[in-house]
Amino acid sequence: MNPELLRHVWLEINPHRLVAMPVVLALIFFMAYSMNDYHFGIPLAHTALWIFGAIGLLWGARIASDAVAEELRDKTWDTQMMSAMEPWSMSWGKLFGSTVYTWYGSVLCLLVFAFNSEYSNYGTLSKSLVIALCTAIFCQAFGMLISLLALRNRVALRSSITLLAQFLGLMYLFPFLTRIFGGKGRVDWFGIDYSWIDFGLISIGLAAAWAVTGVYRLMTVTLQIRSTPVAWLVFAVVVAFYCIGFVFNENEVRPQRTIISTVAFAVFCGLSYIAAFTDRRDPIELRRLIYAVRSKNWKRALEQVPYWTASYLLAIIAVIFILLTSNTELSTTTIQKFVLGQCIPALLLVARDIGILYYFSLAPNPKRAASAAFFYIACLYGLLPLLFTAIDLPLGRIAVLPVMANNLVGSTIIALIHVVGIWFIVIRRWQRTSRDLTTSHLADQSD
To answer: 73, 94, 111: which is closest to 9 by C-alpha?
Structure first.
């Protein structure tokens, strides 16, 4: 048996807790039963579902995200890092072991829901139960994912990080859950008409599987085991494929290719931002990458390459498809023409924004690098264009946001100037930082 899972079971489960959970739940259900004129049925099922959400989603996510923080507080994390346990065993053992008590209560709630549900079809009932289980797995894995990201980036594990994980996870799940459990409806995905319960099963199942995969990949990195960005590459393709399903129209071929490529491009650019802001950007990692490239150790270089480069490469491929598949006679809408004319500048601006992030990350004190980069990026996309628009200075607006220029060549040149300028100062700062690291290393050796 998984030793990490067994350890958490011994810590979380005792006779008092085993008795307390069903007793408290029984009292709550009896209260709901009495308020329903001593009848079983839908009100009791809804009560069980709400309690399941409180225990499995909120409480479970909180415990999962705090599992790593508790190891740090108890000073046992370093011991676990040096153990012989593999990342996958550590991941699922810690994820499901730390939340084993919440799963105990969640299963009891789902049993009450199943016996009182309005679903007469066992297939529909089974799907709703699987959706509920996947929802809890997603919330708990997402909470642990956020805490591992905070640990990797050396950010203090505060309760606000846990609340952020819960908010983001529930924000994604809310439209699915309200449609599945609160009403009827259908959704068109890749030209196929799905019921909301079937589509929710696909969506939440994928989300839960990738959240657990993310925990495993981050645990691998945290345990200092080298890995390549192949999983991130596959994840980006899956997310793009999922989003394309909403705009797919088999009746239009050529314009549809442009729309599909544009959606994929937007997804890859967004994931590039996420990867750049969540991955480590310290000088030591960059030195290892440069050393691997210079020594032509391509396997090591692939293990050291930042994850955002993988999704950015996919964005470049998407831009190529946009340019190749667009047809000016068929793509007559203003939006399609705008996309065709501005995809290259947009791609360059993503590289500029990531360069801004790296510029602040290579500073002598990079603790607030992400917030500083976010502030300047927000100014470049929002404050300055609005300011130049307010004072009726279109050239200034185009200079700071060239994607708004209705000219492919001109906006591309301006965006390219942004990229070259930003990455030039990034390289200069990197050279100074590298010299400082070499000097301090030599000083330590002399001492």
So the answer is: 94
